[in-house]
Amino acid sequence: MPCIDYRWEKRLGGFRKLLPGSPDTALRNESFRAYVGYLRSEDFAAAAAELVVLRRPRVNVGLVALRLLTKR
Fold first, then answer.
1. What tens digit of pLDDT does each residue of 13-47 get?
2. 19, 34 contact by CB (below 8 A)
3. ∠ CA 21-34-22, rounded to 5°
4. What is the pTM assigned to this prediction?
5. Structural domain boundaries of the chain?
6. Which of 14, 15, 19, 8 is nearest to 50 (CA)?
7. CA quadruple 7, 10, 15, 19: dihedral sign
8. Cα distance between residue 6 and residue 64, in whole Å
């Protein structure tokens, strides 16, 4: 049975303030614009990379199990 874990990572979520001169003008909501701007930050990239590394072993196990099930 699949298992989904929850891990809070402060650097991946939460309210962000819109920085002056934001290039994300297509988004009308200021909060969305602020978060999209934050997605380009080194802090966000580092947190996302850590999450991928932590989850990689479980994803690989899940893919192997899926392949075994679909070969039947």
1. 888 999 899 999 999 999 999 999 999 999 989 98
2. yes
3. 15
4. 0.64
5. 13-70
6. 8
7. negative
8. 22
